[in-house]
Design brief:
Blueprint lengths: L1 H20 L2 E4 L2 E4 L3 E6 L10 E6 L4 E5 L4 E6 L13 E6 L8 E5 L3 E5 L5 E6 L6 E6 L5 E6 L3 E6 L3 H8 L5 H6 L9 E5 L7 E6 L5 E6 L3 E6 L4 E2 L4 E2 L4 E6 L11 E8 L14 E11 L2 E9 L4 E2 L2
Antiparallel strand pairs: 1-2, 3-4, 4-5, 5-6, 7-8, 8-9, 9-10, 11-12, 12-13, 13-14, 15-16, 16-17, 17-18, 17-19, 20-21, 21-22, 22-23, 23-24
Amino acid sequence: KKKGKKKGKKKGKKKQGSSSSKNAAKSGSMAGKLQTFTCIQWQAGTSEGSAHEAVAGTAGGELYVFNSESRNLAGVVLAHRTSDESRKSSVLSIAMAHPGSRFHCVTGAGDGSITFWSRAWEELGSLSAPGDAPVVALSLRSDDVKLLCGTMACEIHEMTCPSTAAARAAAGSSLSAAEMAAAPNQGGANATRTLVRGHHNFELWGLATHPFLREYATVGDDQTLRLWDVTSRCQAAPTVSLPAMARACDYYPGQDPTAGESVCHIAVGFGGSVGRGRSKRDGCIRVYKFYRAEVGKGSQTAGAGEHGSFLYRT
C-alpha cells in the first residue's frame, strides 16, 4: 500500500509538469506564452504575406505577430518590456499606419508610454501621455504629423509625432538630403494639446454652479476638483488633486468677479469610499482658493491653492 501511494504521488507530479508545459505555444523557433491579449490589429503593408498577419498586444508587454493562414506565431516583439524584465507594462492599444507611411505602427502601454515602430520592428521614437496615464486608444493621422491618444484618465490628447530625422536617428540611420527636404515641419516632438478632459474612476457626485459667472465646479471619486466653462464646455482651470474622495462642493456666494474680485473660494467635502474602507479625510471640509488673471477682454483661472496652505500651479 505504501508503494502504491508513492507511485500515485509520482504520477501526480508528472501530470502537473505536463500541464504546465502547455502554457508555452511554440511555432518553429518562436515561443510564446499563454497570456491575456489586450488589443489586436491586422498588419498594413504592400507585401502579400503582411496582409495575412495580425499583431496582438499582450499583458506582458510583448507584441505577438500571428499568421492567419498557418495559424502559427510568426514573431515576438519585446515592445514595452525589456529582456531582463526591469521594465514591463501591458500593451493596451495598437494603431497601424497607412500604406506608404514612414511608421509601421504605434503602440500604447499601461505606463503611459507610446512607441513608434518601423516595418522591421525597430523603435523609431517614443512619447509619454500626460500624467503617465494608461494609453487605451490611438489613431495616427495619414500625414504622420499628429497622433490622437485616449487615456484611462478620460482625456484625449493631440500629440505631435517624432520628426523623420529623430526617427531615423533613433533607428541608427542617417537622413538623405531629399528626405530632409520632404520631411514635414513638425515643431517640437513633445507638443501636446488636450482636446477632452473629464472625471474618471468610480462615481461623480459633487456639482456646484458659480453664483455670478457661467462656470461650475465638480468633484468625485477620482480625487480631483475641476472647474468648467459653460460656454466653451471645456475646463476653465488646471485640475486640482484632492487628498481623498469627495462628494460635495460649493462656491462661496459673497464674491462677485464682475465687481473686480480676482479670487473665489470653493468648499469641498470629503468622504464616500463606501465598501472600500474609510479614509482619514472622511468628514473633512477644505476650502480651495482660485486666482483669476485678466487675459485680453476676459478672465482665466490661473491656479488654485488650499486655503491657508500651498498653491497648486501648472
